[in-house]
Structures are given as C-alpha cells and as structure tokens.
Amino acid sequence: MRKLISLILLVIIAGGIVLSLKEIPFGISKIKIGDYYIKKGIEETGATNIVTSVVVSYRGFDTLGEITILFTAAIGLSAVLGTYRKRKAGEKVEPPSFIVKTGCRFLFPILLLVGAYIFIHGHLTPGGGFQGGAIIASAFLLMYLGCEGKRINENTSIVVEVLGALTFIVLGIIGLTIGKDFLFNFLPKGEPNTLLSAGIIPVIYIAIGFKVGSELAGIIDHLIEKNQ
Amino acid sequence: MNFLSEYIYYIGAFSLIFIGLFIVLAKKNLIKVIIGLSIVDTGINLFLITLGYIRGGTAPVFSKPGLKAENMVDPVPQALVLTAIVIGVAVLALALTLAIKLYKHYGTLNLRKIKEQKW
Amino acid sequence: MVNPILLIVIPLGLAFVVPLFRFISKKIEKFIPFFALLANLIISLTLFPHVLEKPIHVSIGGFLPPLGINLVAGPLGILFAMLIALVGFLVSIYAFAYIKEKDQEKYHILYLLLLTGATGVVLTGDIFNLFVFFEILCISSYSLVAYFGDKPGIESAVKYLIQGAVGSSLVLIGIGLLYGQFGTLNMADIASNIHSVHSISVFIPLVLLITGFGVEAAIFPLNAWLPDAHSSAPSSISAILSGIAIEVGLYAIVRVVFTLFGASSILTFLLFLGVITLLIGELCAFNQENIKRMLAYSSIGQIGLIVFALSIGSLSGINGGLFQLVSHTLSKALLFLAAGYMIFRSGSMNISSFEGMGKKMPYTSFAFTIGAFSIVGLPPFIGFPGKFMILKAALFEQDILFTILVFLILLATIIEGAYFFRVVQTIYFKGEKSTPGQEREIAPLSVLIPVFIFVGLIVVIGIYPKLITEILESSASELLNRADYIKNILP
Amino acid sequence: MEIVILILVFLMIVSAIAALIFKDLMNAVIASCVVSLIAAVLFYFLQAPDVAMAEAAIGAALVTGIFVIAVKRTKRFEE
Questions:
Q1: How many domains are there within chain D?
Q2: How many CB contacts within 8 angstroms connect chain A with chain B?
Q3: Do C151 and B44 touch (CB under 8 A)?
Q4: Which residue range(s) make up the domain with C469?
Q5: What is residue A161's predicted lDDT score, i.e. its pLDDT?
Q6: Quick check: C241 and C147 in contact, CB under 8 A?
Q7: Quick one: CA torsion of A10, A15, A21, A27, rounded to 10 degrees?
Q8: pLDDT at B34 over 90
Q9: Which of D48, D50, D69 sits opposite A223 (nearest CB)?
Q10: A40 vs C296, which has greater pLDDT?
Q11: What is the DSSP string of B12-80?
C-alpha cells in the first residue's frame, strides 16, 4: 500500500518535471552569466580554472556558507554522540593484517602530499580546497584502518579548523575595510597560470583545504570511536 | 537511438532521483533510507552538471593555450554542485550519527517499530 | 551607514571562534551568543530608518548583480533580521540558567549558527545562496533537536532530518530547473524574465520550491515532524524553532511566490491550505495532554492563519499577516520559555502537573497567562490587532468564499481559546490543597528578565500597534511591487 | 563513445536498483558507492573534472567509509 502511494506520487512529480524539461534542451549553448564568467574570468580574478574563480570569487559567499555547513555538521555530530573519550589503554583491538598495515603506512604520506598539491594548485588545474581536503581526510581514514590506536589530536584539529575559517572571514573583512565589498580580491592578480597569481583565491583555497581536511577527519574520528 | 543518446544523461539523473525518493518513501530501515538520500543527491548533482553541458565543449580550465572560450561548458552548475556535494556529506554524516544513536536507544533501525511519539 | 553584511559576518565569525575558548576559559562561551545578537540588534535598529527610505543592497566580492551574490536589506528583510536578533538575544539570556549540560559550547555554537542561517536567508538576494543559508538553519536545528540525546529527541530529530532532507532536494531540483531556463541565479534577474517563458515550465519549479520550503514552514501535509521536534527539543530551542525557524521558512515561500514568480494563481490554493492547516493544528492541539506538544500544534495553527492572510494578496491582507507573524513570534517564544521553566520545576510535561503553579511560581505563571491571552487574541495584547486586521482584510474582499473561510477561522479561534483557558485554569484554580514542601519558588533572574521583556513588548505593541505598522506597511508594499524590487537591483 | 555512456548509465541505474533491493546493508552501501563512482566518470565525460574529483573523493570514498562505520556500529541486515 505504502509502496503504491509512493509510486503514484513519484509518477506525478516525474510527469511535471518532464513537462518542465522541454524548455531545457540538452547540450545547446544557453548560458548567460556562465558565458560572462568564461570570457572575463581570467581578466577579473586571475584564476585560469574558471570553476575555482566562480567558487571562490564570484560566488565566494556560497563557499563561506558551505564551510559553515560542514562545521555545523561536525559540531552537531559531536554534540549528538556525546563527549569525546579517548580509548582506554587495555582495550582489545583487532590488529590489521600485515599487508593492510604496510599499505596504509606507505599510502598515508603520499595521499597527504597529493591532497596538498591539489588544493595549492586549485586556481590553475582542476581541484581545489574541497577535493584536496577530502583526499587528506581519506588518508586519515586509511590511517584508522591500518594503524591501530592512532588518533589525531582533537585540540590540533580544532585549532586548524578554526584558523582555516577565520582566515576566510578575516580576508573578507579586510576587503570590506579597505573600502570595497566583503570578500573583495584586494591582492595583486599577478601573471595568469603561475602559482602566485589570482590574489586571495589560492590563500582562501588553502585555508579551505586545511579546514575541510581536518573537519572530515574529525567526523570520521568521532564516528569510529567505539565507546561512549 | 537518437532520442536515447540525446536524453541519456537526463534519464540517468532522474532515474537516480526517483529510485532514491522511492527508497526514502517506501523502505523501513533507517540506513536504507539514508542510502536513498545519498542516491537522490547524486542524481541531482548529475542533473545540474548536465544542465551546463555543451555538445563538444571543453572543461572551463585554461590549462593550455589554444582553448576557445566559446567552446567551454558552463562553470556555474559545476560550482553549485561542488557546494551541493559538501552539503550532502554534511547531512549524511549527521543522519548516520543519529542512526547510530537511535540504534543504541531502541536496538532496532526499523522506523515502523519506533513509535514512542504519536504523530 | 553600517554594512548589512555585518549582520551575518559577526555571528558567523564569533561562532567559529567559540571552540578556541576551551583554551582560555570555559566560562566565557555562554556570553558569546549574547554579545553577537546584541550587536545584531543594534545594527538592525540603526539600519531601520535608512531602509524605510530606500532598500540597501550590497554586492559581495565587488561583482555587481547578477554576476555576484548580493544582499538586499529591504524593509521585509530588516524586519525579519530585527525579529531574529531580538528573540535570539532574549533567548540567549534565558539559556544562561537553562542550559546546564557539561558540553555547553556546542549548544552555543549551534545556536549562533542557527540564527546566522536565519539572518542569511532573509537578507540574501540570490536563490542558491538562500538555499545554502537555509541548509545551515536546517542542519543546526536537526542537531539542536537531538541535543539532549534522549530517546524522544533522537527519534524526532531523525524524522525531522529525513523530511527536511527530502525538502531540500526538491528545492535544489527547482533551482536547477530555474537556472536551466534563465541562466542566472539572482532573484531579481529571474523575476524580470519570469513571464517570458511558457507558464507550465515555470509552474513546476514554483511547486517544487514551495513544497521544499513548506517542509520547514510546516504547511499542512508537510508538518508531521513539527510536534515531535518542537516538543522534544530543549525549551529554549523550541522557542527559537517556533518563533524563528518556521517563520523563516514562511519568508522563503513568500519571497518565492511574490517576488520571484509574482504568481497570483497559486494564491487561491494557498488560501485553502492555510485554513486547513489552521483547523488541523487547533483541533490536534485541543486533544493534547502534553503542554509542549499543545504549543507546537498551536504553532501549526498560527502558521495556517498567517499563510491564509498572506495569500489574500491585498495590501491589507499581507499587512495583517505580517503583524500576526510578529505577534506569533513574540507570544509563542514567551509561552515556550515560561512553559519550559515550569516543566523544569514540576519535572513533567503533562498539563495536569501544573496544578497550583499559580501559587508556586507566580511570575512565570503570570507571564504564561499573558502569552496565552495574546495568542488567543484578547484585546489589550499584541494578538488582537493582528487577528482583527486579518479578518477585516478577508471580509473586505466581499466574496462568499471569504465569508465562509472567516467563519472557519473564528471557529478555530474558539477552539484555541478553549484549550488555552483550560491550561490557565489548571495553573490557577486547580490543586487548592497545599502539600508541604511546595513553597513559592521564584525563577532565577536570567529567566525572568527575558520573559518579562517579552511581556512588556506584547502589552506595549498591543496597545500602540502604530509602533510597527510603518515597517509592516513598507514590507507589504515591497512584496507587492516586484517592479521596484527588480529596478532597485538591476538598474 | 556514445555506447560507452549508454552502458555506464545503464549500470548506474542497475546499481541504484540493487541498492534498493539488497537486504544486506553492506552490499547496499557498496552498490551506492558504485553509483557514485559511475557518476564521477560521467561528470568527467560531461567536462566537469573538478566535480568528478570531488565526487570520487567525497561521494565515493568518504561517504562509503562513513556508511561502513555506521553499518558496523548498528545492524547489518535489514528486517
């Protein structure tokens, strides 16, 4: 019965959306602001990766909201799970196999490096703070699988998180105080396609990378903690 | 065939959305419901990216010289989807935390069996 | 002039700083929301006279709309920002004594983030940005509902989260469809082009957006989560959820319907939905034995009334609806705060356990009574002018349909009066027998101060409704004059 | 080229349906991981390398990890 009702409901929604999709044909140029971003993006922001310039510069406020959402979820998750407790010393942990252990120890630094590379070059090549941060967090996920008993220090991760977010906000406020708008790109744009270009974009993306990495690692750490 | 290749991305995206919504509406197990939510998220992301695609276009990155601006796909949906993916992860992590906590309280994940509160 | 972006940046920045206080002193953190919201209240009050002359709009990152994201501080936005800051400020004082858990810093961070999200929703001029702030609001309220970590809290948070997440997905699909058709995300830009395309392909996103935001606004078939969530959250959060969160959901709907789409055809539908929501809310509230569930169902009823008033679509109707919204925010926040402390003392949410409260806790009971009278709509309080304006606006339409609906609203008001008077009667006139050990207990100052500021506001605005009518009228005309809104942002 | 995309989309829908049917939650989680992975490949075909990277790193790896942890801490089989 319940399944039938849900099916009928879904068919109605689907019909509506198909009707509305007729106005949006596939694969034909119809972009308006997107077109402007592509044509003027490099000139206005200095980043060769237009997606990065949209994410950090044109729609930077969304990104601020986005890292806030991740922060909210991390805080809410630890509030729901209850206070953080370290694993007791005598507790039995199933040791991982030799291959897993060695593989994880080998991969962990490489993944950290790849993550850092991706968010440092966010304004030049595909990738950026979120992707790099997620890769760093998966390095920590591997570490939890492979090296028993190793945990990140909670205080360190909180300090990294807070500093990452504050960098973003402080850069925004500097833009505001020197007479322009919030999040105004006040640093020199530099030569496109070099590492030191695009003003505040790489700075913000590096801050986001650290923040997202430590936050996601913290989320995994909280969830993996067995005892409450 | 022509029709299929024209609309295959839309078909894929909306199939995911509707399968996901069906899981959310019809399944009883909380973890299953959350899996449904994640499939809905993926479907929506695919839909948004498809919106910005231009046939024969290139990625909006001026990584090498000779790329023409006219041929690039729309960067805005890609930026939106980056945001949407992170929002999705946040909601999923919170939902799974609540599921773990719910299991601790009730010993079950069956939503029909959890009826402490009347609707 | 102050930049309206500070309304968002100050609480957001402070919320990020709070975790650092664990290294300095754990005692400071509970004052952070207090100061942040005090700052917000002052900023919105200073912006208030400017906004009445001309809406302020700020672009972010130095890109003019429709390229960048912009904030629009019109009369409606500042009205809501002021309400959020005021209620949030008073409830943060209440939390000093009410929240005693070990891990308080998380409560305060989430509380600040909730209000930041709400402020962002009412100020932004970009539809996707609105969605992002809406998600901040939703995620922080899911976690706050589960904050105590007890059985009912977790259960209702799960229900709330699933329904909320489906709602957000629908909103995102709607935004995608809009972007596909118009190639822009700025609300003014979309609004200026909305009549250029076929009406059915605009209608579907409208329905998706209304459904998605309607989950948070608790309009009739989408309100199953509300009674659970509002009754099992901490009382200070119930006050915020009832007083702020559903109103912000309603704001999103109103903004989408009036400004973005300028839709008049859907208003008739919303009219009926409003009256049905009202009747169902009041009837369910009548049957409740649990005081917080009763208040939660009463919120559903009030939201129905506000939706009805706003969808009359005339200037006086919207005016009355906004007045009722302000009055509901103040009265319901007061009721939850007062009831929360009475529950804290009696140890039970059952109405019958409130017997003799009038003697034990005279001040809190008095405040609760004022709030109840105000919600019902008795004359010297703020609820009366609101209901009166709505009924006048409805009867002014001179339509047989409206006469029937007005009759139904009066019926609902009678039901509402019946159950609130039952509670007041229980508090004052039942349980005469004085058992030993039940001396008068005066609530701590940090509870009494916010509660009595609410009482003062309710009485003062109830006697002089002119105090807020100016901003309400300009907000109503902002909603009805889409052309001005568009012209202001896209010159 | 087009036939590859057709097959990928078909596989993606099949794994979504598999996630709906499987009674073993661990299998359902893996199926939803496959959905995310194929979606990441499709994002790459749709000229969105940034999103493909994010979907592969977040949607496929991290979310699956979190799901596996949650399933391990609750019950493995649907009743």
A1: 1
A2: 137
A3: no
A4: 6-489
A5: 87
A6: no
A7: 70
A8: yes
A9: D69
A10: C296
A11: HHHHHHHHHHHHHHH--BHHHHHHHHHHHHHHHHHHHHHHH--TT-B-SB--STT--GGGBPPHHHHHH
* D36, D46, D78: residue with CB nearest B42: D36
Give SS3 for C148.
coil
Q: Is B111 on the interface with D (CB under 8 A)?
A: no
Provide the token pair at C388: 């009166």
Closest-CA distance of chain C to residue B40, Å: 7
Q: Is residue C288 part of a domain?
A: yes
DSSP summary character for residue A56: I
In a domain, C265, yes or no: yes
Say how many CB pairs under 8 Å bridge B and D: 143
Q: Please report how the helices C291-310 and C265-286 are oriented relative to each other, as an axis angle in degrees rounded to 10.
A: 160
- Which segment of B109-118, C81-90, C168-177 scores lowest on mean pLDDT? B109-118
Range of the domain at D66: 2-73
Which residue bears the tokens 């118009």?
A: C182
D–C contact (≥3 CB pairs within 8 Å)? no
Beta pairing class for C56-59 and C70-73: antiparallel
Angle at C282 between CA C471 and CA C148, to 5 degrees: 85
Yes or no: say if C113 and C18 are a contact pair by the CB < 8 Å rule.
no
Is residue C154 included in any domain, yes or no? yes
Most confident of A97-101, A107-111, B8-12, C328-332: C328-332
Domain that holds residue B92: 2-56+67-106
| d(C-alpha C92, C-alpha C11), whole Å | 13
Across the interface, of B30, B98, B116, the residue whose CB is closest to C152 is B116
- Could you tell me how many residues make up chain A? 228
pLDDT tier for residue D34 given thresholds of 50, 70 and 90: very high
Count other Cβ atoms within 10 Å, centred on residue C212: 28
Domain count, chain B: 1
Contacting partners of chain B (3+ CB pairs under 8 A): A, C, D
What does residue A227 show for φ and ψ, rounded to 5 degrees? -105, 135
**C1 within some domain:** no
Q: What percent of chain A has pLDDT over 70?
A: 90
C-alpha span between C54 and C79 (Å, rounded): 14
Assembly ipTM: 0.93
